[in-house]
Write a structure and sequence with these properties.
Layout: H1 3-34, H2 38-62, H3 68-87, H4 92-119, H5 126-155, H6 157-178, H7 190-196, H8 201-221, H9 224-231, H10 239-261, H11 265-281, H12 283-286, H13 290-306, H14 308-318, H15 323-350, H16 357-383, H17 398-403
Subcellular location: Cell membrane
Protein name: MFS transporter
Transmembrane segments: 43-64, 71-90, 96-120, 132-151, 157-180, 201-224, 239-257, 269-287, 293-311, 332-353, 359-379
Length: 405
């Protein structure tokens, strides 16, 4: 497996993951400096997510005929520009626009990067290659976000965005040096052909599984701090360390999911979702003591991110004529899950079901994800004659492309 180009993708993923999540820890600093309220500063989180949802499919579609290596470098250049503008934003409105710009390349980078990663390895290692790229995202939760938050609190929030810009520049250099050159690609019918490739029920069922499955995660994770302080009895000062445990669990789950998915793509997906249902359903019990609460946070990250690589490959498989667009659309679905899961978890709290009720709402969403994944499996069995042996990521591109035509 060519580790050097995959790690260059991970560097870009590390920068993207850091800038996406660091704003949560910097909200008080930004609000004080720009003389705005905390809720108003919270719009900066939403602006980034909106940029991801809009930019992921749009940028992947309009760059369909370009060299993927050049696209990745261009996306990171846009990322650097957005973070540099954030660092020098004179007021809240300019910062809002800069955060939107920063989010535009996020989903497209992961989408195109997943296609590049799978093209660098043997068919039986595709899921592992995607998990190595995602490693940058999970490590960002362990190291990138805490360090960037500490920097912002002591050197000012603007220094954080300059630091993230430097990570983006390092990613550009590593991508230029380590990712093999490729030629411009001939899309079937340009933008129309890319979009047409998504007009199938299996693609939308795969995207729906992502929304429901990761919506389950964010239903609980968005409210993990009050669970840890009010239910488990942790002090506020301990929460950052506990969230790092989530990152550790996510890293373990991501790497395990990549390896398992290379043996059984759909089996790993079903197993990950079933594990997520179990962990979330046990949250009311696990949050009663401090040691079990720490275990719950770690297991949550593990169970959720086991499904990351299988979901990414599943969407690419179902839209084999436009894998970059489909893979990017999956990142947009991930951010819709972020917003939707947080909203559903908030509803459970608002009606008075208790501090751990967002986790139970998440368990229900994970059950829904299992149902959607089951429906996708049923559609596959209806449309494609069963083949002997296991379902393996080997068939991600060529096999499915020929069988669906």
């Amino acid at each position: 497996m060519p580790l050097a180009p995959l790690l260059s993708l991970a560097v870009g993923a590390f920068g993207l993951g850091t800038t996406e999540f660091v704003m949560m820890g910097l909200l008080p600093n930004v609000a004080d400096d720009l003389h705005i309220s905390i809720p108003t500063a919270g719009h900066l989180v939403s602006a980034y997510a909106l940029g991801v949802v809009v930019g992921a499919p749009l940028l992947a579609a309009v760059t369909a005929k370009m060299s993927r290596r050049k696209v990745l470098i261009g996306l990171m250049a846009l990322f650097v520009a957005g973070n540099a503008l954030s660092a020098f934003a004179p007021d809240h409105h300019w910062l809002l626009a800069a955060r939107l710009l920063s989010g535009l390349p996020h989903g497209a980078f992961f989408g195109v990067g997943a296609v590049v990663a799978t093209g660098l390895v043997a068919p039986e290692r595709k899921a592992r290659s995607v998990s190595l790229m995602f490693l940058g995202l999970t490590v960002a939760n362990i190291a990138g976000v805490p360090v960037a938050t500490f920097m912002g609190q002591h050197l000012g929030w603007r220094a954080t965005f300059l630091g993230v810009s430097a990570i983006g520049l390092a990613a550009i250099v590593s991508l230029a040096l380590l990712v093999p050159r490729d030629h411009a690609r001939a899309a079937t019918d340009g933008l129309r052909g890319e979009v047409a490739a998504l007009r199938s029920l299996p693609v939308w069922l795969s995207l729906g599984t992502t929304v429901a499955g990761f919506g389950a995660l964010f239903s609980a994770y968005s409210y993990i701090t009050p669970m840890l302080t009010d239910s488990a009895g942790y002090a506020d000062s301990h929460v950052t360390l506990l969230l790092a445990l989530f990152g550790v669990g996510a890293t373990v789950g991501n790497l395990a999911g990549g390896r398992l998915a290379d043996h059984s793509l759909r089996g790993t997906l079903f197993g990950g979702l079933a594990s997520l249902v179990t962990v979330l359903a046990l949250f009311p019990v696990l949050m009663q003591t401090q040691w079990s609460a720490a275990l719950a946070v770690t297991l949550l990250g593990t169970a959720a991110f086991v499904t990351g690589s299988p979901l990414q490959l599943m969407v690419m498989e179902k839209a084999s004529a436009a894998p970059s667009l489909a893979s990017s659309a999956n990142q947009a679905a991930f951010n819709l899950a972020n917003a939707g899961g947080a909203w559903i978890g908030g509803l459970a709290l608002a009606v008075g079901f208790g501090t751990t009720s967002p986790a139970l709402a998440g368990a229900a969403l994970a059950v829904l994800g299992l149902g959607v994944a089951g429906a996708a499996y049923a559609v596959d069995r209806r449309d494609v004659a069963p083949t002997a042996g296991r379902v393996v990521a080997t068939h991600v591109l060529r096999h499915r492309e020929t069988t669906h035509r």
